[in-house]
Amino acid sequence: MTTTTPSIRDRIAALDWAPMTKDLDSFGCTIVKSVLTREECRSLAAMYERDDIFRSTIVMARHGFGRGEYKYWSYPLPEIVAGLRTALYPPLAAVANRAEVVSLQQGDGVAFAVSHRPVQGTKGTYRVNLRHGVSRLRSGHRNTMGIIFHDGK
C-alpha cells in the first residue's frame, strides 16, 4: 500500500483553526503543527547555501539582534514556500495583527504578528510592540524559515 503526503494546502486546511485563532488573539502566537514533512525540512535547509535564490542576507549582529543570519527569498519563491504562503494567508489574515517563547519540533511552524498586537488593559485596548526571533540554540544545528506576508509581492 502506498501513501501520498497531503498537499500543503490540504495540511493547512485540515488544521483546527479555532483554538489557533484564540491563541493568536490571546498570546500573539500559535503553534502550526506538522506543516512540513522531514523531507521538506531537509530540502528547504539545503537551499540556504544557494545565494542565487535569495535577494539579501541580514547578519543579525550588525543590527544588534544577536547572532546568526537570515535571508530573504528572491522571486519567484520556491514552490513549497509559495504554497505555504498561499495556504496560510487566508486563515491568518483575520488575526495576523494580534511574544512568547514557543517550543517547536522539526516540521512544526509558528505564526506570529509582525510588529504590534492589541492587548486588553484596564482602560481599554492598546497596542503592544512585538519583537520576534528564534530562541538560543543550545546544541546541534537549526534552520528557521520565515514566510513574510507584508512585503508587497
Polypeptide structure, described:
The protein has 153 residues and is of the alpha+beta class. It has one domain. The protein is built from four helices and six strands; from the N terminus they run H-H-E-H-E-E-H-E-E-E. It has a two-stranded antiparallel sheet with strand order 1-4. The longest helix is centred in the middle third of the chain and has 15 residues, at 79-93. The chain is globular. The chain starts with 7 loop residues before the first helix and ends in a 24-residue tail after the last strand.
Considering the chains and any ligands shown, give keywords for the structure.
single chain; 153 residues; alpha+beta; two-stranded antiparallel sheet; 27% helix; 20% strand; globular
Q: Quaternary state, please?
A: single chain
Shape: globular
Percentage of residues assigned to helices: 25-40%
Structural class: alpha+beta
Order of helices and strands: HHEHEEHEEE
Spatial gap, N to C terminus: 41 Å
**Strand line-up of the largest beta sheet:** 1-4
Strand content: 15-25%
- Helical run tally: 4
How many distinct beta strands?
Answer: 6
